[in-house]
């Protein structure tokens, strides 16, 4: 018997498991709806502009390439270092956890295979932790 399940993180397996660009758009829409409506994300929401249109476009474009699909962020906005970009804000464990919790809630709203949902959230912890590290390093360098 052969296991034909996709190996997430290789080629475009994660992109496909997310439902391609439309699936990613829905995930991002749900993520920002969670951030807007969940009381536990109030501090995180306060860091964002009132109009989330550009934030939605950028996160969708980033996740497309990050999940192995078209590198839309680079095509539309140029290259980016997520940790370096976010280091301008004082992002600590509380904000990181709010972001991850909103993403977990959004992932739970998708029709993702449970193995992919778990994989995706675990993988998103990596850049989230790097943002905290970069933010803390910038704060220490300014002292």
From TrEMBL:
Q: Give one GO term, molecular function aspect.
A: metal ion binding
Q: Which InterPro entries match?
A: GlbO/GLB3-like, Globin-like_sf, Globin/Proto, Hemoglobin_trunc
Return the similarity comment: Belongs to the truncated hemoglobin family. Group II subfamily.
Q: Which UniProt keywords apply?
A: Heme, Iron, Metal-binding, Transport
Q: Name one Pfam family in it.
A: Bac_globin
Stated name of the protein = Globin
